Amino acid sequence: MKLGDAIAEIMKREGIEILTGYPVNHLIEHAAAANIRPVMVRQERIGLHMADAISRVTSGRKIGAFCMQHGPGSENAYGGVAQAYGESVPILVLPMGYARRIAHIDPNFNSTIAMRGITKSAEPIVLAAEVPNIFRRAFTRLKNGRGGPVLVEIPTDMWNEEVPEPLDYIPVMATRYGPDPAEVKRAAALLAAAKRPVIYAGTGVHWAEAWPQLKALAELLAAPVTTSLGGKSSFNEDHPLSLGSGGLAIPQPVRHFLDKADLIFGIGCSFTETNFGVKMPKGPKIIHATLDPMHLNKDVRADLGLIGDAALTLDALLAELASLVPAPRDAAPVAAEIQAQREPWLAQWMPKLASQDAPLNPYRVLWDLQHTVDRDNTIITHDAGSPRDQLSPFWRATTPLSYLGWGKTTQLGYGLGLAMGAKLAAPDKLCINVWGDAAIGFTGMDFETCVRERIPIMSILLNNFSMAIELKVMPVSTEKYRSTDISGDYAAMARAFGGYGERVTDPAEIIPAIRRGIEKTQAGIPVLLEFITSKETAVSRL
Asked: CA quadruple 312, 316, 322, 328: dihedral positive or negative?
């Protein structure tokens, strides 16, 4: 069996149905022959982002895969691999490599070496007979422990080599591990005794599919729940105990309850210190439940650590709490306190959320979007910068994985690929990315990929013809050289690519345009709605 056929067969046995990539990488042909759909992108980073979303939307039950050529293709892919590493997303990365005889000669780009710091593992194929063992290691790392990209480099001189038959490969197992029972007992006692506990849920709740257990714990303790951006949608934000999700922008209830908490229970989170995450107060006791022990005491000092899968951890806690809290506590006082914080905060922002101004206020666009789509059957993601900060505090996610949040590293243009990959993984959902005119400059050409590959997403573009949030840090260069000015007719670009593009300038046309866009996606047509907005820089920072 030829090496490429063996790799494709292994991928198929592991359940991979889509291979995103860019040629030349001969695996594309071998995968197509094995009925794995190749999706060709316009630049490497988007292909990785699509693979990223496939893994996310399925909670890792299906692994996203990406391949690229050696040299420049691998160099261009670096940012996408780094983004997945920062967000702990399992992706199989399959670069070609230089021929073995020159793989380590400067200046040839060696992916195995160059990407070792942004992958869980990076291994080259040097012997065809070792292919089953190499991929057994790769998929074991993809399916177990904290997520992250795993790289297997395929030298260009190996495609004609033979892998012994019959192919010695069976799909690898996915394992889980749980916390120390003694520490669970201590944690349960602390949670039961806390007067003002707050639950902080991270991305690990999504990977463990621990949504029912999170809800059960919150309702048992009458404990309010907030999430990281990555954990957003792990708890129904229409629930009376939801505080909403905090990042750089934060809803008032989140800050209020964290600052008054006597105990913060972090589940499935890293507590990574970042400008795009919630700052934890000093004072409350911290219980840190995480899959990776390397996260303990990394940025936040923990009083107690629970190491293991989020679902197993919550199951163990609920069992231990059964005798300590035999019936659900009355949630009415906490719910009332949440509303007492949320209502004046929303009232403060309502002039922007309901603005009649033209140019449009971006908050109005996103508010109308939220109240027009079927949130239960929508997957939405933000982009870096203003779209993230204008969307995340006000969008109330109702079902698991309906919001793909991110923020440890914030590359512009990430949202487009996430929406595309989400649509491939969940074709019955309305998949939306929200971006600005800076982000579309990075990855906008791949809207053509949506058209060519029949991926009918809805792209919401907030175009203010400016790098608005950079205005305050670039006053001289803006005044002298207009360095923050950017522009384009992006709706026309979408139409030129064969999609549906519409430019909206009138507040009364926001909702009708969104409805038209939804109808077009249902007809299989990718949509770009371009809203001409003001240079809005206000952010809900508390």
From this structure: negative
